[in-house]
Amino acid sequence: MVLTEEGLFMTCSPSHVAILVPSVHKAADHLRQFDFEIGEEEVFPETREIYVQGSERNALLLMEARDTGSYRKALQKRGPGIHHLAIDVLDLEGFLSSIAGSGWFLHLNSLQTMKDFRSAYLARPGFPALIEVQEKTALMDGPLFVDGVSLPFDPGLTRLMKSVGLDRTVTPGNPSLRLGGKQIELEALY
Fold it and tell me: For the domain with range 2-189, which CATH number is right: 3.40.50.1000, 3.20.20.150, 3.90.550.10, 3.10.180.10?
């Protein structure tokens, strides 16, 4: 839950962490040594994707950019790394209203994704990933599979993580993940 400035609580839950990698197969092969559950490859117009999960509630999403599109542009511009951190909410518009003034900006693509998929993207200069906010009818509970994310960002932006309920999971530091209690350097997935 996130406490808003008005003293209201908005419920949200970590959903997944998406990493843009040069090869989903290479990244998945590296993670097999830890006995994580590796899903089947799915192919979409802009990406190849594989979900990795333990028995816990949130997942790691490996994404490989295909020929053209926004993911290919992101890979060319920023290189491999965490693309987005996703959270689930019960009321998309209510949640977005509750974080007004928090410092997040609504990504312009959200105007379409809110209509088509009931999701929105938040961005902030100086923060190296997007936040995907997805509306769901129910939220999962229990231990997290992706229970730690370190990213290179100014510690002054930590308040942003609190506003989207990720302050216990996402911290400033060298790029790495903690999956099912195991520390994984992001470079090992590239």
Answer: 3.10.180.10
